[in-house]
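Support request, please re-run this one:
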Amino acid sequence: MAAIIIVGAGLAAAKAAEALRDRGHDGPITVIGGEEHLPYERPPLSKGYLQGSAERDSVFTFDAAWYADHDVAVRTGVRATALDRGARTVELETGEKLPYDKLLLATGSRPRPLPDADGVHYLRTLDDSDRLREAFARGGRLGVVGGGWIGLEAAAAAREAGLEVVVVEPAEQPLLGALGPEVAKVFADLHRSHGVKMRTSTTVRSVLPGGKGLVLGDGESVPTDTVLVGIGAIANVDLAEAAGLALAEGGVAVDAGLRTSDPDIYAVGDVAAAEHPALGRRIRVEHWANALNQPAVAAANMLGGDEVYDRLPYFFTDQYQLGMEYLGLSTGYDAVVIRGDVDSLEFVAFWLSEGRVLAGMNVNVWDVGDDVRELITSRRVVDPARLADTGVPLADV
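Re-run finished. Output below.
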């Protein structure tokens, strides 16, 4: 019976174990994770759980009984330190060497640190979210370094908890790199309307001890009681790199079937830089949907299949009264088309290149995902006027 080891113990690991059992694998499955917790989902950490609307137990993918019932061994609180591809073993920090026939890397990513900043918060783990919840309960003023998704979701949660919030972002607008200026403005205006002070085109020179203030690039001091740093993430490729696996796009290079340069090793989730058959290029995206859906393809192929992962990148957020879903990748767009009413936060935004839809984002407009997906994958040239016209069904554009 083939032994399968999964390195990493997040959502992707749990879904891989589930997929392997569902597809008939009856050999040993071992999940190895450095955190003390069973695998859990990360979106609630900056959304429902941080806001207090979701219970702590709700973040876990499966309970302990599920792993026992499916004969999946979960080694929590222990890190994998080395891969020996020749011997096909994983070495743990305890010194143990575990043999594998197939290996799945689901090592995820870690927050990019702010240099020389002590006493600040990051938001990646359940423990991080617990600590931030405790800080919110104390009240005061939250300083957010970085106007990305994590920073803005935490800012919304903090405002709803009654804290004052200031966001410091070096770009002209938050989310500028992700959405472009046309749509990034929507989020900037949303936060300002809820009392968040947006300090854009501004850098942080230093953080005062204990997170009790930010010194900005121009020397101004901004008082804070708590500081959250959200300036991006770094894929955890250390094991793969040391083992000589091919890397790309800041992650582990895999083909459309999620195979690495070693035929016995696969990678999924944040760490996987995958060839995407629908987009015609290699991409690495740190989205929950990859951790949820890629493992089924990797599991099938570890068991001798030949499946490909061709789902479009998908992301969602909830901030104040704004709910949003984003599908595709807007990289290289040359036009933005808005369908609906931005002022009332009920619209769909489309990013186009040479008349073809690259990505779509529905804001408080639901049940349009299939139509948006078809517009992207069909690669057909559309009429921007018809795309913007709410009287024309998306299926008829």
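DSSP finds eleven helices and 26 strands in the chain. The longest helix spans residues 176-193.
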